[in-house]
Amino acid sequence: MSGTFKGKPTSRRAFLRGGVAAAAGAVAAGAAQAATPDPLITEVQDWAISLGDGVDATPYGLPIEYEADVVRRNVPWLTADPISSINFTPIHALDGTITPQGCAFERHHSGAIDLKKEDYRLMINGLVDTPLVFTYEDLERFPRENHVYFCECAANTGMEWAGAQLNGAQFTHGMIHNMEYTGVSLRTLLEEAGLDAAGDLKDKWVYVEGADASSNGRSIPMAKALGDCLVAFKANGEALRKEHGYPVRLVVPGWEGNMWVKWLRRIEVTDAAVESREETSKYTDTLEDGTSRKWTWVMDAKSVITSPSPQSPIKHGKGPLVITGLAWSGHGAITRVDVSKDGGKTWETARLAKPGEAKALTRFYLDTTWDGEEMLLQSRAMDETGYIQPTKAQLREVRGLNSVYHNNCIQTWWVRPNGEAENVEVS
Amino acid sequence: MSGTFKGKPTSRRAFLRGGVAAAAGAVAAGAAQAATPDPLITEVQDWAISLGDGVDATPYGLPIEYEADVVRRNVPWLTADPISSINFTPIHALDGTITPQGCAFERHHSGAIDLKKEDYRLMINGLVDTPLVFTYEDLERFPRENHVYFCECAANTGMEWAGAQLNGAQFTHGMIHNMEYTGVSLRTLLEEAGLDAAGDLKDKWVYVEGADASSNGRSIPMAKALGDCLVAFKANGEALRKEHGYPVRLVVPGWEGNMWVKWLRRIEVTDAAVESREETSKYTDTLEDGTSRKWTWVMDAKSVITSPSPQSPIKHGKGPLVITGLAWSGHGAITRVDVSKDGGKTWETARLAKPGEAKALTRFYLDTTWDGEEMLLQSRAMDETGYIQPTKAQLREVRGLNSVYHNNCIQTWWVRPNGEAENVEVS
Fold it and tell me: What span is annotated as the signal peptide, if there is one (chains A, B) (predicted)?
């Protein structure tokens, strides 16, 4: 999959030999050669003659101090206070696809609550044969599944409807994370309570709510509830972190993050949607004529270049360049990502690191050569339904400028000859 | 995949209704019902009427305090000091397959060193056309790959050769982790330096060493070096942690962890193995007759039940029980795992959560019913080569009792009627 470059099989080799990677012989031989001797090669370093940390140093480890910038960040002016607010995953500095829980974005409506496993209860009630209350231990006795899914806040990229505003992929596209969840199928628990009482399931719903003060209630159509939803208690192998809903959250694959209720406390089977605050005045899309789209649950195909980007400028000058980013679709697997360097006039197809992961982040790479000139970088995702990520102009044509949520348009970074990048809008 | 139980489709349902999960109506109705009202359901809780933490609370998060036991642990008496020592992944408390970096086991020979990206250099020398020195930034300019692989120390389970000793899956089998790595193919870098000078590659080797005081040099045959090895700089999406080789480590998929050199500083192409300390007096397998097997790089198929296990007893009494564990093979994908409750007399085939992941941890589940009687739990892995994990007796027959490394035999947990488990040996 790698090791060759489209039409330029020797570009990196020739380039690195020409200057970037030093020829080792020259460096080691020292003064007789043209290259300046590199003391990191020619001199014995402290770390090679002293002892490092022992295995008792960090029972649970954190990133090294040099990575202190790779953290969640919030934007104080976005919300009235940090309790009902959002922070952003540092996607500009990550690679691969898994998001560590420690830097995965948070969105709370009344803060991250402290709930012990022994105090946890999950009620299933409404149109079921037998209303049930589960303890955490009960949940652990049902068959478990493992799946990697992305979770994207519906408001991700929402500030960009009106034009380029937040300068950095972390802030424009960082309300997303991608983790491996372990949990029990929601279907299994609903079947445990029995659905005969609900009658014809076709028009039925479940209403899910959390144990926090906001309760964040949302209605989910029965078909989805009986589909791929998980009642999850682990992420990336370990317990959910407090800020991700410890001890139990709902996972609603491919659907907007607001429905992934944290600190899940109740699931009610109903014969109609509740039309709660979170699905009427919020998380709906107001169109140009003042009416609103609702039930816009599925996150359409979307992508963003994470490097180079405003927080991840090119520092190495012209020559070999790896352009990389993330693509995802709530409808299934990403099948193709194209990258443009000229604001959408021409496109090159990127390499997908691991295609076929449905409703999960897909990493793409374009292994290319930079001529040192300015670029208008864009990426465009396609998914298995044939859907193609739209331009901002196309999206505005359909939805106008009144929306906040569900902005999945193509993002543009203007890379200048000095390698710095800026969030811009192209017509 | 879930929701049914072999031959007992209603066992959990009937069981939970019979006692464990409370019928919600009964609880809510209170005193008129037989069930004791549960104040966690009938009374408003503090967390539902107060605000939690804001999104500025933890720029980089850690596990919640209630999970403080889920950490790496070392065993002081195993080694002379904690600098050249090992600690263990808390696999008994994890689920899914990904290991968070923060609790992934560590093995250092001279401690975890502190090495900044800007001080990082990687030399490729020896039988190459042009010896090269790469900076960290140089490495970022080559095409990258992403793969999930397990890394197992060759000494994992080594204390068990002589008999059941360490009481807990974390200690018997916790020298393993499983992460998504991002890096450059070692082949790409070797080709950058040029291998024409090496002549016939068939009998060539690379010698790899780290920047720490131990240097931990190892010889790798050229076929593997040009195969799936990665020069990795990210794990689970973020920078390698200090204790995992920041900023760069070698990934040698399926092969013993000692070869996964951390703080990788040099790769020398040679025409013979170096026969270093780490591959002669250590990491070889002394047989009954005093001779030693060497070049035993590949980690054979192996598995362990992580729950129930000594550190993860059954607390819920008889009835529905999820038996779960991990299986892996350095030769490829796990194709099947069987579980025995009677010390290997009879076997049931477990469910693989996500089959087909080569050289990565595979999670297995047996969704079963416990009769409350004692069990001798075992798991037995099979891989795509047809290899079957051996019993301890079979392994001893071939290798005797002098070995430390490469013990991949079937593990037994004796589960008593009270749900507690113990590490035992069955004949």
Answer: 1-34
Q: Which CATH architecture has domain B81-427?
A: Alpha-Beta Complex (3.90)
Distances from the Cα of A138 to the Cα of A81, A133, B43, B321, angstroms = 37, 9, 21, 10
CB contact under 8 Å between B116 and A40, yes or no, is no
Residue of A263, A248, A279, A268 lying closest to A212 (CA atoms) = A263
- Please say if the pLDDT value at position B3 is more than 70: no
Per CB-CB distance under 8 Å, the chain A contacts of B324 are: 144
Q: Which of B2, B22, B322 sits opposite A133 (nearest CB)?
A: B22
Phi-psi region of A163 (alpha: psi -120 to 50; beta: other; left: phi over 0): left
Domain ranges (residues) in chain A: 11-48, 87-427
Give DSSP secondary structure letters for A163-219. S--S-SHHHHH-SEEEEEEEEEEHHHHHHHH-SGGG--GGG-EEEEEESSTT---EE
- HSE-CB of A223 using CA atoms within 13 angstroms: 2
Mean predicted lDDT score pLDDT of chain B:
92
Contact indicator for B95, A234 with CB cutoff of 8 Å: yes
Percent helix, percent strand, percent coil in chain B, to nearest 5: 20, 30, 50
Given a cut of 70, whether residue A416 has pLDDT beyond it is: yes
CB contacts of A47 in chain B (<8 Å) are 113-115, 211-213, 263
- Taking only the tens place, the pLDDT of each residue in A57-99 is 999 999 999 999 999 999 999 999 999 999 999 999 999 999 9
d(CA A65, CA A72): 15
Judge whether A144 and B323 are in contact, CB under 8 Å: no
Sequence-ordered list of residues with C-beta below 8 angstroms from that of A102, at least 6 positions apart, any chain: A62, A63, A241, B58, B60, B61, B62, B102
Taking each helix axis from N to C end, the angle separating B11-18 and A186-193, rounded to the nearest 10 degrees, works out to: 60
Q: What is the ipTM of this complex?
A: 0.94
Average pLDDT over residues A156-161: 94
Nearest by CB to residue A71, choosing from B59, B62, B236, is B59
Residues A101-110 have pLDDT tens digits of: 999 999 999 9
Name the nearest CA neighbour of A173 among A294, A321, A323, A327.
A327
Those of residues 335-374 in A touching chain B at CB distance below 8 A are 351, 353-354, 363, 365, 367
Residue B119 has pLDDT above 70, yes or no: yes
Q: Is A375 in contact with A341 (CB distance < 8 Å)?
A: yes
**Residues on chain A touching B233 (C-beta within 8 angstroms):** 95
Q: A256 to chain B, minimum CA–CA distance in Å?
A: 19
Residue of B nearest to A145 (CA): B353
Give A 6-35 residues with CB within 8 A of chain B: 12-13, 16-17, 20-25, 27-28
Distance from CA of A190 to the nearest CA of B (A): 10
Cα B395 from Cα B106, distance rounded (Å)? 27
Q: Of the candidates A17, A52, A119, which has its C-beta nearest B112's C-beta?
A: A52
For residue A25, the model assigns a pLDDT of: 46
Peptide bond into B417 cis (omega under 30): no
Nearest to A316 among B16, B28, B141 (CB): B141
pLDDT digit string (tens) for B47-69?
A: 999 999 999 999 999 999 999 99
So what's the architecture of A87-427 in CATH?
Alpha-Beta Complex (3.90)
Question: If you write DSSP's letter for every residue of B47-75 in order, what string do you get?
Answer: GGTS--B-TTS-SS----GGGTT-S-EE-
Residues of B in contact with A49 (CB under 8 A): 213
